[in-house]
Design goal:
ATP-binding, protein biosynthesis, two-stranded antiparallel ribbon, two-stranded antiparallel sheet, alpha+beta, 2 helices
């Protein structure tokens, strides 16, 4: 007798076989809000994530963040092709110097 395959309620859009249980954590936007929390403190910087649905087999973990396959490709591309050119501002900020120290 043939096995009956049951479709998952939320199928993974990448493999289309397993249940999507995770959301992608890749940060796609930063924004500042002046909203306040319940104690009256300003919330400040916020970020928006990709939130693609995925199963645990399709996700890739980088530093505790779970990325979908498309964001994982983007992350690898950025790591391989990003050209870092730190200048004086970077070192002055890093070592706590300001413009008056010159």
């Amino acid at each position: 007798m043939a096995e009956v395959f049951k479709m998952p309620k939320y199928p993974c859009p990448f493999c289309k076989k397993r249940e999507a249980t995770q959301l992608c954590d890749f940060i796609i936007d930063h924004f500042f809000t002046t909203a306040k929390d319940e104690k009256g403190r300003m919330i400040g910087m916020q970020h928006e994530t990709c939130n693609n649905q995925m199963c645990t087999k399709c996700m890739t973990v980088y530093g505790g963040l779970e990325f979908c396959p498309s964001c994982s490709k983007l992350w690898k591309y950025i790591q391989d092709n990003h050209e870092r050119k730190p200048g004086r501002l970077y070192y002055d900020t890093l070592f706590g110097r300001n413009n008056n120290d010159r």
